[in-house]
Amino acid sequence: xxxxxxxxxxxDLEEYLHHELLANEAADIREHIANCASCAxxxxxxxxxxxxxxxxxxxxxxxxxxxxxxxxxxxxxxxx
Length: 80
Ligand SMILES: [Zn+2]
What we know:
- Helices cover 81% and strands 0% of the residues.
- The chain is mostly helical and 80 residues long.
- The protein has helices at 6-17, 23-34, 37-59, 62-79.
- Helix 1 (6-17) crosses helix 2 and helix 1 (6-17) packs parallel to helix 3.
- It has one domain (6-78): Arc Repressor Mutant, subunit A.
- It starts with 5 loop residues before the first helix and ends with a helix.
- The longest helix is centred in the middle third of the chain and has 23 residues, at 37-59.
- The protein binds zinc ion (ZN).
């Protein structure tokens, strides 16, 4: 197995985390991360970010968010 290197690992990390890479490419990245502390850190940060975004999407539906913003704007206008 050849180590794909930090440049490639970091470039492909986002696609890797979203499971958008081909199986053999993902295996290269996974192998690199297993042997590279720096890329392993980046992977952890990426995973946390993705989970945070997914949680935010689940908890706040776009329509709900829109209403919250509209309500806020109306409050501001009332007090102006
Ligand atoms: Zn690396």
